[in-house]
Amino acid sequence: MVALEGTHALQWNKLCHIYTRFCQQVAGSLACGMLAALGAVLIIAVSARNLFRLYPSMLPPPPTTCSG
Questions:
Q1: How many CB atoms are located within 10 Å of the residue 6 CB?
Q2: Is residue 46 within a helix (H) or strand (E), and if so which, with residue range?
Q3: Is 5 helix (H, G, I), strand (E, B) or coil?
Q4: Transmembrane stretches, by residue range (predicted)?
């Protein structure tokens, strides 16, 4: 955000007006990073689902009622 808008209190200029390629590369890297993080979450969720399907639940079975 500092690169886009600058900081008036610190007298920093907007960097995106000076270094256009820098801002494009930062935006691209942020997008790639978010895509990689979402992919990792998806892989973790699928892996956890498959892992927990291998083991039965540790809860006791529900009581059976006999209506005779």
A1: 16
A2: helix 20-54
A3: helix
A4: 27-48
What is residue 67's predicted lDDT score, i.e. its pLDDT?
65
Rounded distance, CA 8 to CA 65, Å?
74
Maximal CA-CA distance, the chain: 86
Q: Are 3 and 22 in contact (CB under 8 A)?
A: yes
Low-confidence ranges of the chain (pLDDT < 70): 1-8, 10-12, 15, 67-68
The answer to whether 16 and 3 have CB atoms below 8 angstroms apart is yes
Q: DSSP state, 57?
A: -
pTM (global) more than 0.70: no
